[in-house]
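User: Structure tokens for this complex, please. No commentary.
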Amino acid sequence: DGGITQSPKYLFRKEGQNVTLSCEQNLNHDAMYWYRQDPGQGLRLIYYSQIVNDFQKGDIAEGYSVSREKKESFPLTVTSAQKNPTAFYLCASSGTGPVYEQYFGPGTRLTVT
Amino acid sequence: AQSVTQLDSQVPVFEEAPVELRCNYSSSVSVYLFWYVQYPNQGLQLLLKYLSGSTLVKGINGFEAEFNKSQTSFHLRKPSVHISDTAEYFCAVSDQGGSEKLVFGKGTKLTVNP
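Assistant:
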């Protein structure tokens, strides 16, 4: 089955620790995205990548970092600089134009205490 | 830049009643429009999309939406809802100029009561 996998489903960390969230897709999509979801806030774009070895900041990139070394993978690191990291994180991917329908993974719920 | 406003944060309805979830957008260019559904603790699933052509778009699970360019709206409707439609619904927009980014509304929580 083609799709997007995110692991783990739930993640717990202590404050001050960096943590990396995994996102893998086998849809052969060029573009990948990371969103953060908080209650009542909708989805906010953290980073996106349109091609391997290239990525751009989204609306709330501070305290996060990404890499895109392979087409299939787009890991997100939540650093200790992120002031409020507890949230639901969603990864998505899309093919090339002209319509950029995004497909979403199941999400990772990160809790930092 | 685009923006999306979902006018209702919560919509409670009874089973088998009709429902409309409202979405307005703002953009200086032509857009593509999407509705996604999210069940608790899951990712988003595409319900339907407007690309061009007919302004009435039919999607999965009996949902449909109408694109109204003059009112910059893309309201989602279903004539008769089921308990299983209880979920959060997100409206999203992307511009036709080549950007791959989606801008999402804040979501509408639909609760279907027996």
